[in-house]
């Protein structure tokens, strides 16, 4: 629902979430009871091997394994509300630990396998997690924290399964994800169990999801885009999800679409662009694919046209954020208007509010801050131990993000950029302050400012503008290496530009946007 005038009633109008609600039960129990032998998960490690050799899980097997992990965690002394960090790549063990924790009422913290040990240690400390599930080859430097390695996870799976999922309330804490903030420190976004119910408007408003669907997702589990679109939603609808965890190679995606008979493929626009550039799509049978799903960064009209020409399929775009997942999208049967991510999904209450303040939605055609009504079940419980930042994003009955947008007379949303300096790197929101703090320690850096630099109409990169110290020799490779040792790959600058000084306001604040404009 788009609100064109203040006289219209406000609030989420979709079906209310049951008071007693557990995400893991919602996703797995029905499938285990109705179709226990149906394939729920396929994990492919080698795109060139026969699909029969891939790891497979039925709904019955997943349901039992998740309840075994839940029982094991409780036997290990965890109590509802405790937090456990997951630092693993896309494996079935990751999914079992995530849903096993939810099944026990424990709060999992999914994290990126790309994080450096120092970045991971910050999340562990800030969340006050008492344990971490760690994949082989990954390390943590924090002391006094319990580590669940492959052997310990296998032990959890040998427990007798819980007879039922935890009797959690819809508003009980479910999981914690971290996102970049304007302060430069990653902040925890705490979601309730009702967040899975809050995804229901996507079923028709974006996917057209059916039990017969095969969802192939190209993302990583630390991202709500992957956890939701890749696991939660397919399982809640009795569908099959396919994940790939083999060698990174863009050529695998059309192979997997053909081999798995994927009906839905989800990725960021950057990956679609790479697929179109490097893959021979005509050599693959993509007849099973109904349409592609894209989120995380804006879909350019040129990329949409290119995909249509190459495949004869549509790309359905969605706009979302860590605090509420996706809430604006195009879906089956909707007109796709190039340049717009679509309309608010059915039942959602979304508006553009005046930038300078106020709670009355702007009329069609006027640009303001994109806002979601606080009654939306998909909206976060709050920021973890960040009451100051939390207060900044609520305006009366609205949650107000940093996106600038307008709605046309037909309800389509049009994006006008960010009101703050947050950057978009491969679909991840990245704080320039966090990158700047890492680069400032370089021995040859006097000052540094980081911003998003548009190199083509539909391509942008993270760029660092560096004022070198006197008598130092500018060395971009050294700065990039310094960043790679301290930041996750998606946060690292792709380009270093040396300048004599940084543009500043009269009050001394760096004007990052002026740098981006050259």
Report the mean per-residue pLDDT as an integer. 92
Outline type: globular
Q: Give the assembly state of these chains.
A: single chain
Q: Which percent band covers the strand fraction?
A: 25-35%
Name the helicity range.
25-40%
CATH class of the domain at 423-516: Alpha Beta
Number of H/I helices: 15
Structure classification: alpha/beta
Summarize the helices and strands and which ones pair or pack.
Layout: H1 23-34, E1 39-44, E2 55-58, H2 59-75, E3 83-87, H3 92-104, E4 107-110, H4 117-127, E5 131-134, E6 146-148, H5 150-156, E7 173-179, E8 187-192, H6 194-197, H7 200-207, E9 214-217, H8 224-236, E10 240-244, H9 252-260, E11 264-267, H10 269-278, E12 291-294, H11 301-311, E13 314-321, E14 325-329, E15 343-344, E16 350-353, E17 368-373, E18 382-383, H12 387-393, E19 394-395, E20 398-407, E21 413-418, E22 423-425, E23 428-430, H13 432-439, E24 445-456, E25 459-468, H14 476-484, E26 495-498, H15 512-516
Parallel strand pairs: 1-10, 3-4, 3-5, 5-6, 9-10, 9-11, 11-12, 12-13, 25-26
Antiparallel strand pairs: 1-2, 7-8, 8-18, 13-14, 14-15, 16-17, 17-20, 19-20, 20-21, 22-23, 24-25
Helix pairs in contact: 1-2, 1-8, 2-3, 10-11
């Amino acid at each position: 629902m788009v609100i064109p005038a203040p006289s219209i009633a406000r609030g989420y109008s979709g079906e209310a979430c049951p008071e007693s609600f557990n995400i893991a039960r919602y996703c797995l129990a029905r499938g285990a009871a109705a179709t226990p032998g149906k394939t729920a998960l396929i994990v492919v490690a080698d795109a060139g091997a026969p699909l029969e050799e891939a790891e497979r899980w039925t709904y019955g097997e997943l349901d039992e394994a998740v309840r075994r992990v839940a029982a094991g965690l409780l036997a290990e002394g965890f109590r509802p509300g405790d937090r456990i960090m997951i630092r693993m790549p896309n494996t079935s063990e990751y999914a079992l630990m995530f849903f096993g924790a939810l099944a026990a009422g424990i709060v999992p913290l999914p994290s990126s396998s790309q994080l450096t040990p120092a970045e991971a240690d910050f999340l562990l400390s800030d969340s006050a997690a008492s344990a971490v599930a760690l994949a082989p080859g990954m390390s943590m430097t924090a002391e006094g924290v319990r580590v669940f390695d492959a052997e310990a996870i296998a032990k959890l799976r040998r427990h007798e399964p819980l007879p039922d999922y935890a009797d959690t309330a819809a508003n009980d804490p479910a999981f914690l994800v971290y996102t970049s903030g304007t302060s430069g420190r990653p902040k925890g976004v705490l979601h309730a169990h009702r967040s899975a119910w809050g995804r229901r408007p996507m079923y028709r408003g974006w996917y057209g999801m059916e039990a017969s669907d095969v969802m192939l997702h190209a993302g990583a589990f630390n991202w709500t885009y992957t956890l939701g679109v890749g696991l939660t939603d397919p399982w809640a609808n009795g569908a099959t999800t396919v994940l790939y965890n083999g060698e990174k190679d863009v050529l695998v995606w059309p192979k997997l679409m053909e081999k798995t008979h994927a009906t839905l493929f989800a990725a960021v626009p950057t990956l679609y662009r790479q697929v179109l550039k490097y893959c021979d799509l005509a050599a693959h049978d993509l007849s099973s694919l109904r349409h592609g799903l894209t989120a995380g960064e804006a879909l350019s009209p040129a990329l949409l046209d290119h995909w249509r020409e190459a495949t004869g399929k549509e790309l359905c775009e969605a706009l979302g954020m860590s605090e509420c997942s996706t809430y604006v999208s195009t879906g089956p049967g909707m007109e796709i208007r190039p340049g717009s991510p679509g309309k608010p999904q059915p039942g959602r209450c979304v508006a553009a509010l005046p930038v300078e303040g106020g709670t009355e939605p702007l009329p069609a055609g006027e640009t303001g801050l994109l806002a979601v009504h606080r009654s939306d079940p998909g909206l976060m419980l709050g920021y973890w131990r960040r009451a100051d930042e939390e207060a900044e994003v609520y305006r009366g009955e609205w949650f107000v993000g940093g996106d600038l947008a307008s709605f046309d007379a037909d309800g389509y949303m049009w994006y006008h950029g960010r009101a703050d300096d947050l950057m978009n790197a491969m679909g991840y929101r990245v704080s320039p302050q966090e990158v700047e703090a890492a680069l400032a320690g370089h021995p040859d850096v006097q000052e540094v400012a980081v911003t998003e630099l548009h190199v083509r109409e539909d391509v942008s990169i993270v760029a660092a503008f560096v004022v070198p110290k006197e008598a130092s020799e500018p060395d971009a490779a050294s700065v990039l290496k310094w960043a790679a040792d301290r930041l996750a790959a998606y946060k690292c600058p792709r380009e270093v530009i040396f300048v004599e000084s940084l543009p500043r306001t009269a009050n001394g604040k760096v004007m990052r946007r002026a740098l981006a404009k050259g």
